[in-house]
């Protein structure tokens, strides 16, 4: 039976510049017909966000420019440019019914000015053309509000600089004092080694690549400011060597943190390096990281609605996974990935032969974001994480506080805190003081660091689900496994549940679940067409359970099972130790037909137990 699902990306090999241009064109194709009569607004849905509906419709107009502008700068054709030109003139005209409104402090309109600034910097003739002087003056007056209105104190400071690039291309002189203020804030966010924090919090996620470095490299390439350009380039070079470890052999990026609905913006950093002519890694490696990532996304038609529009979600549509600032137009931030289309075919980036994946050897410690990364199997990257949880955004504990994140299995967000099926506690330790009705997991840590014990880096953290409950957690990579060691001191009785990696429970037949789930004392395991997920208690004191998570909670698969270990704690102290393994399809080679514990008894468990005891004694 032929699927009715749109697949404009399927069949595109994504090996060349022309292939990438076709991908951009396919994603942009449905949009012109949805523009408002004046061209200034594009409404893709009716769900609200924390900002007003006019700003949301401006978002729909502006975000396609992340892809449209470089496509045009590189000679690509797009028949609907006159609609976007008319929209800019209407949206900045206070007398027009589609006026966007004057931007205020902390206003979403400041965000959407950034792609307009880029488009004016790259292809002003496409966006302004032969606009009358009065209309041109209105556009400039509207954009200049970016110089006077206060942005949110994070990556938003870059929007002032992006607008400045457009103003300079129009022959205007930006406010140098306003730009200096923006540079001062941005410099203050740099932690070293190419890592930025996104404002006053400690969260370090994909905003480092698709925001800070993306804007910094665009600024370095277009501003003519040699001093700041040199700083942005140096930071990007340092970051490239670290960020490459966030990508698996198949091109999948590590899903961690917020704004994951921006999808292949995760690979925009590699394209920005090319745009700025910054060979931070050999061009063939950069090209490989970039193209493999686009191919990974192109193989997932479920990121599109039936109308061919990008949806809110990750590997499929799920509003539950989004943020409070996501509208239906927000995912078009993904078009940032098309920046290198502004480069000619003979640019070294496009001319280079794509280099194969270059996996790291052993454990990669990244102290800035608090991660230990390793390869579990041929294509999967697993990141052990501690110390980055933020309470600023929706479902922050799931997006920053899990103990492990995977390029293959993703992570799950909670539906609510009532029950394990709703909490979806994959790769975390959840605790309940009401008999298992409501649960708490690790959020912000009191302290966390990377330590070396026995020559092996270990992630240590201390956190308190309640003021009188203290948990110290050690996460130990032992590829393809990892170990978790928890020391809990509590003044209250607790129920404990520790989850492994969530795994897709649906097989090839959409009407049947082709999985095997096993639970026994000390072990929980799921084997499915998607692979294997296993959690084993190293002391045997906990019972196994396979939790059937509520649908649409996991980023990668809409229906999942979570192997889980259950236990209890009377007031006092307990030490928990477990070994965790997840391998994708084709790489899960545990033998069939043996009782669960016997299956592992002659394998890695004795070594893992000895290793865990040695670590715990240190």
UniProtKB/TrEMBL annotation:
Pfam families: DUF2264, DUF2264_C. PANTHER family: LINALOOL DEHYDRATASE_ISOMERASE DOMAIN-CONTAINING PROTEIN. It comes from the Bacteria. This is DUF2264 domain-containing protein. Residues 16-356, 370-587 form the DUF2264 domain. The lineage of its organism: Bacteria, Pseudomonadati, Pseudomonadota, Alphaproteobacteria, Acetobacterales. It comes from Belnapia mucosa. InterPro entries: DUF2264_C, DUF2264_N, UCP014753.
């Amino acid at each position: 039976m032929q699927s009715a699902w749109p697949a404009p990306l399927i069949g595109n090999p994504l090996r060349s510049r022309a292939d990438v241009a076709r991908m951009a064109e396919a994603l942009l194709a449905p949009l012109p017909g949805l523009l408002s009569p004046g061209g200034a607004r594009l409404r893709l849905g009716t769900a609200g966000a924390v900002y007003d509906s006019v700003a949301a419709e401006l978002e729909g107009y502006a975000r396609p420019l992340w892809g449209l502008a470089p496509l045009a700068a590189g000679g690509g054709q797009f028949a609907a440019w006159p609609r976007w030109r008319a929209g800019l003139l209407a949206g900045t005209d206070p007398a027009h019914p589609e006026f966007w409104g004057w931007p205020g402090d902390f206003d979403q309109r400041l965000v959407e000015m950034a792609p307009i600034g880029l488009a004016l910097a790259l292809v002003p003739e496409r966006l302004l053309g032969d606009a009358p002087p009065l209309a041109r003056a209105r556009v400039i007056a509207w954009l200049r509000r970016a110089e006077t209105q206060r942005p949110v104190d994070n990556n938003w400071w870059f929007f002032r600089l992006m607008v400045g690039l457009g103003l300079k291309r129009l022959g205007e002189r930006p406010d140098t004092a306003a730009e200096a203020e923006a540079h001062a804030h941005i410099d203050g966010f740099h932690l070293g080694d190419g890592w930025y924090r996104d404002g006053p919090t400690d969260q370090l996620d994909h905003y480092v690549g698709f925001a800070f470095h993306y804007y910094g490299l665009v600024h370095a390439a277009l501003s003519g400011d040699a001093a700041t350009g040199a700083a942005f380039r140096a930071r990007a070079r340092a970051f490239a060597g670290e960020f490459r470890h966030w990508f698996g052999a198949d091109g999948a990026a590590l899903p961690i943190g917020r704004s994951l609905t921006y999808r292949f913006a995760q690979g925009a950093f590699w394209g920005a390096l090319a745009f700025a002519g910054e060979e931070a890694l050999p061009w063939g490696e950069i090209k490989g990281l970039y193209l493999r990532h686009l191919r990974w996304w192109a193989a997932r038609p479920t990121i599109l609605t039936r109308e061919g529009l990008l949806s809110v979600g990750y590997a499929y549509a799920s509003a539950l996974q989004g943020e409070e600032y996501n509208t239906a137009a927000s995912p078009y931030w993904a078009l940032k990935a098309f920046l290198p289309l502004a480069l000619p075919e003979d640019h070294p980036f496009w001319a280079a032969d794509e280099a194969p994946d270059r996996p790291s050897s052993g454990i990669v410690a990244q102290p800035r974001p608090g991660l230990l990364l390793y390869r579990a199997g041929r294509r999967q990257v697993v990141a052990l994480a501690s110390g980055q949880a933020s309470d600023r955004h929706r479902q922050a504990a799931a997006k920053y506080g899990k103990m492990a994140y995977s390029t293959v299995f993703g992570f799950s967000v909670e539906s609510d805190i009532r029950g394990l099926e709703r909490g979806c506690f994959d790769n975390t330790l959840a605790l309940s003081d009401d008999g298992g009705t409501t649960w708490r997991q690790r959020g912000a840590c009191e302290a966390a660091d990377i330590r070396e014990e026995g020559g092996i880096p270990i992630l240590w953290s201390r956190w308190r689900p309640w003021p009188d409950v203290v948990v110290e957690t050690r996460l130990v990579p032992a590829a393809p496994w990892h170990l978790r060691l928890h020391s809990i001191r509590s003044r209250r009785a607790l129920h404990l549940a520790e989850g492994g990696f969530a795994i897709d429970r649906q097989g090839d037949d959409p009407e049947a679940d082709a999985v095997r789930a096993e639970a026994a004392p000390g072990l929980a395991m799921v084997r499915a067409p998607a692979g294997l997920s296993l959690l084993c208690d190293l002391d045997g004191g906990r019972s196994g359970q396979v939790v059937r998570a509520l649908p649409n909670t996991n980023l990668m698969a809409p229906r999942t099972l979570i192997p889980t270990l259950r236990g209890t704690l009377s007031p006092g102290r307990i030490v928990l130790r477990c070994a965790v393994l997840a391998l994708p399809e084709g790489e899960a080679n545990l033998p069939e037909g043996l009782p669960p514990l016997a299956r592992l008894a002659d394998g890695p468990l004795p070594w893992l137990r000895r290793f865990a005891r040695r670590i715990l004694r240190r």
